[in-house]
Amino acid sequence: MSASIIDGKAAAQALRDRLAIEVSRIDAEHSWVPGLAVVLVGEDPASQVYVRNKGKQTAEAGMRSFEHKLPASTSERELLDLVESLNRDDAVNGILVQLPLPEHIDAQLVIETIDPAKDVDGFHPMNTGALSNGDPTALVPCTPLGCLMMLREQFPEGIAGLNAVVVGRSNIVGKPMAQLLIAESCTVTVAHSKTRDLPALCRTADILVAAVGRPEMVRGDWVKEGAVVIDVGINRVQLEGQEKARLVGDVAFAEAAERAKAITPVPGGVGPMTIACLLRNTVVAACRQHRVVCELG
Ligand SMILES: Nc1nc(=O)c2c([nH]1)NC[C@@H]1CN(c3ccc(C(=O)N[C@@H](CCC(=O)O)C(=O)O)cc3)C=[N+]21
Ligand SMILES: [Mg+2]
Asked: Which residues hold NADP(+) (predicted)?
């Protein structure tokens, strides 16, 4: 089998096109547009790329974008004050505070200070709790949501009953991904650094999600013939004798593609869908705050 390559860029563009239509309908009928605030503390390079793409795409979808770039020396109190002022700002429907934050700031405290109704990352305990309860009103973390949307496209007959293995147990990806797959009636196993015989476990997966942040850790012979592979990793690797760093996933792409039915590439897979889902969550959150019906399905 030679895998089909899941085009995350195209899927993200299609979702953003639908969002733009919904935003213009809301504007025409209600005379407001959704607003997203992104807060970046310090100079993490990955976060800077993400913020740049996000601001551009927010505006392209007809939404308002508010960017707050603060120095790495910002105190925890200053950041909490900013979050509280964004909570009170009616033009701001979604708030995202870029992670990681500098060491001297308690990231969990910052997350818990965000109004859960504006928590478009879905990281607030109110939203993680709602997700684990199967509450459809939960704001769902963007990366797992994007992965699920791409997975659904690969299985017209549905994913209920399939074996899913999620490699990685982070609060940002692994755990919410597992919750979403449970809600879809998959049989879900979450693997991590202490898992015994990870290759054999992965070979049981009809759906294999790799979210560990280790370049090309998942090898081709870990992939079951005909599986769908979702690669969440975005690792910058510096090759000897080469000027520019190369982006690679958590999956050895060429090897895995020989056995998978379909696989996401890096770049151009999960990353673009993450941003599109952030915009989607902002539209959904804005509609709830204004108590109007959102026609995104
Ligand atoms: N509160 C918070 N929420 C986040 O969702 C969050 C965050 N903090 N901190 C940083 C990470 C990183 N992240 C990315 C999203 C999209 C791409 C993306 O679109 N990547 C392109 C490649 C971009 C490139 O060339 O570097 C791709 O995969 O095709 C990358 C990285 C979201 N993050
Ligand atoms: Mg996210």
From this structure: 168-170, 234
Q: Which ligand is nearest to the CA of 275?
A: 1
Q: Is position 55 annotated in a ligand binding site?
A: no
Q: Is 220 annotated as a binding residue?
A: no
Low-confidence residues in the chain, pLDDT < 70: 1, 297
| Residue 1 pLDDT | 64
CB 296 within 8 A of CB 22: yes
pLDDT of residue 34: 98
Instruction: Name the pTM for this structure.
Output: 0.97
| The pLDDT of residue 296 | 86
Q: How far is the CA of 147 from the centre of ligand 2 (A)?
A: 12
Domains of the chain are 30-118+272-297 (3.40.50.10860), 142-266 (3.40.50.720)
* Residue-level length of the chain: 297
Residue with tokens 């993450």: 274
Predicted-assembly ipTM surpassing the 0.90 threshold: yes
Q: What is the pLDDT of residue 201?
A: 98
Whole-number Å distance between alpha carbons of 67 and 46: 16
